[in-house]
Amino acid sequence: MQKTKVLLTSAGIGVVVLATTIFAGAQEQDPVSLENHSDCSFFGVEREKFAKETRDRYWRSRLTEEVANYGRYGFEAIVPTGTRTKLLQDQISDSPIDVAIFGELQRKNLAPAEKTNDFEFARRVTLDLTGRVPSYESLIQFAGNQSTTKRDELIDQLLKTPEWVDKWTMYFGDLYRNTRNSDVTPRFDQGRNAFYRWIKASLEANKPYNQMATELISTKGTNSFEQGEVNFLLGSDTNGGPNNDDYDQEAADVVGTFLGIGHMNCVLCHNGRGHLDALSLWGRNAKRSEAWGMAAYFARLNFAATRPDPANNNLRYYALVDNGRTDYPLNTTTGNRPARSPIDGLGTTVRPKYMFGEESARTGENYREAFARAVTNDFQFSRATVNYIWATMMGRGLVEPLDQFDPARLDPDNPPSGTWTLQPSNAALLNTLADGFRKSNYDLKWLMRTIAVSDTYQLSSRYAGEWNPTYEPTFARHLVRRLMAEEIHDVIAVTSNILPTYSVNAPTGATYSDRGSYAVRFAMQLPETGTLPDNNVVASFLNSFARGNRLDDDRKGDGSALQALNLMNDAFVMTRIRSSNIGGQQSFLNKYINMADNQLVNQMYLTVLTRYPTPEETDIAVATLKGTTGTTRVQKGENLMWSLYNKVDFIYNY
Asked: Of 153, 363, 435, 591, which has fewest CB within 10 angstroms of its CB?
């Protein structure tokens, strides 16, 4: 892996900009080395995924170290003063997170970082919860508030905003892989939009997460263009095999998404013994016959297509129904997986049986409703959900990779024997949070608030002592993350005060509600990634920040030279550094360019970077605004605005 530092000098100012990029390729050091198994495609894919994500975590830890320690580029302006916070000795928080994290730090004789200051906290929590940065006015008000509860109050305010809904609709759209085109069965624009609306409405209503999962697993519906949740299982449809392949993939996708156990895909092909021995204690003992019991919950599911537009024979919506077919048959010799024939004393068909507990379909109970009940009642459902949200807000999960839980290594009261260790970096914390999440009635806002109010979440990303990447799972410091593509876009739009308008299209001419187009102002409001918006220039800008396509290209936080070039030259950025007033939309510079020099510089830094400039930055910027070069004051202001969008702390949340 090659690590490149690109030092740039912004036009006419002399402000040094640091862009740190990490490229896939040759590595200084490979933190993980795993053998491939050529005999199993599913296993090979998951093994490589494990290796890649382990490497990514290692290099992200190195990135945290570098970004957080570049004080000479502006970070020292917001470093807390005074002696180091004694969070271990003087801990006053009764948060279960802090009790678990600081207790573990004490056992390992590691000191935590200082607690971050108000400017960093406001930026961090606003980005994490809403995908935006705080406005200048709200930031000044927050920093000047002397209340000891102001951070808790800010968190509560953010959780009530429509921006919170937008950010997490995007997140769950990624998790559920909501796209126009699924792997085999297309949802079309109408189905994608309906699924987007269902996710958004669920979050707006603060629907319990177990209810969301239940609806996605067990729903029945006649029109996927009208009933959004029908579109989840459409994404599991397979091609070129018997119906069993569909049942297997539906079970694997539900278990992977809601229980975080991605190895189910392996076990649906073969027993784990000889394939998963080195990766999963549970997996090495799991049997294919048990996995068939999970797939059997979907054996009566059927998709029925309707073509609503005589002029467009390709367009179709789906009904999701359960029919009277028999149970899971063991009579296949073709398809995407090995032949299915009776083993382990099974007959010619398999009835549903939940392999992670005693749950099974009750007499007369709909199979998928039984499966939804079993999944959401499983404590692992709470663990997996907690781990997803924790990773998003804290930079890494308590279990990594997020979808490769090992059910046999999760209980600190019953640890594995031999060379196996507990899988979570803090198993007691994971179980405590999962129990709290369950007791909260699966309230996602409760979970996010519990994380955000903790001292652990509010630690600085800078570390006073020597940092070792192996400390990363202890959460002794806050981990740096690069902003999502949509966050970068929306923050530039908001801070420049030049909001775009994008059209989300759906074909016309059919008898369903979602016809025509509708407009959005922010990238976080787009119903899918990869192709939208229809403005190809902006779509390319977003794609350069690795937003993925929700199918075969996952979202990434990697850096690249293209990202740096786009921030320097792309039309989306360049049009927003201008002093303009088009159609009553007054840009930031148009509004503030005539401020006094020091006031303009402060306003600009607080708006774009959520911090005051350093004394050195102030001197350089003011001297440039007063300079006698051939450029006008407006041009000098535009150069300064450009430089802030290209500073390292703009594209990172620290």
From this structure: 363
Q: What are phi and psi of 139, to 5 degrees?
A: -65, -45
Contact 39, 58 (CB under 8 A): no
Closest by CA position to 168, among listed 222, 194, 205: 205
Task: Tell me the sheet residues that pair with 304.
Answer: 319
Q: Do 204 and 211 contact (CB within 8 A), yes or no?
A: no
Nearest to 517 by CA among 531, 529, 530, 534: 534
Query: What residues pair up with 19 in beta bridges, in sequence order?
Result: 6
The answer on pLDDT for 573 being more than 90 is yes
Phi, psi of 579 (to 5 degrees): -90, 105
Question: What is the model's pTM?
Answer: 0.89
CA distances from 55 to 65, 261, 318, 481 (A): 16, 20, 41, 15
* Residue 123 · residue 610 · CB < 8 Å: yes
Report the C-alpha gap between 278 and 280 in whole angstroms. Answer: 6
3-state secondary structure of 139: helix
Beta bridge partners of 487: none
Contact 370, 225 (CB under 8 A): no
Sorted by sequence, the CB contacts under 8 Å of residue 64 that are 6+ apart come out as 395, 461, 467, 472, 477, 479, 480, 654
Tokens 């705080």 correspond to: 134
Q: What is the pLDDT of residues 310-356, one digit of tens each?
A: 888 889 999 999 987 789 999 999 999 999 999 888 899 999 999 99
What are the domain boundaries of the chain? 208-377, 485-500+530-653
Contact yes or no for 170/522 (Cβ under 8 A): no
pLDDT for 40 equals 52
Q: What is the rounded distance in angstroms from the CA atom of residue 54 to the CA atom of residue 472? A: 12
Other C-beta atoms lying within 10 Å of the C-beta of residue 46: 23
Least confident of 51-60, 91-100, 127-136: 51-60
CA distances from 509 to 199, 307, 311, 404, 555 (A): 26, 12, 8, 44, 34
**Minimal CA–CA distance to 63: which of 608, 556, 562?**
556
Confidence of residue 63 (pLDDT cuts 50, 70, 90): low
CA distances from 233 to 193, 319, 337, 413 (A): 15, 11, 19, 36
Can you state the percent helix, strand and coil of the chain, rounding each to 5? Answer: 45, 10, 45
Cβ(115)–Cβ(458) below 8 Å: yes
pLDDT for the residue 55 = 53
Q: 83: Cβ–Cβ under 8 A, 6 or more apart, which residues?
A: none
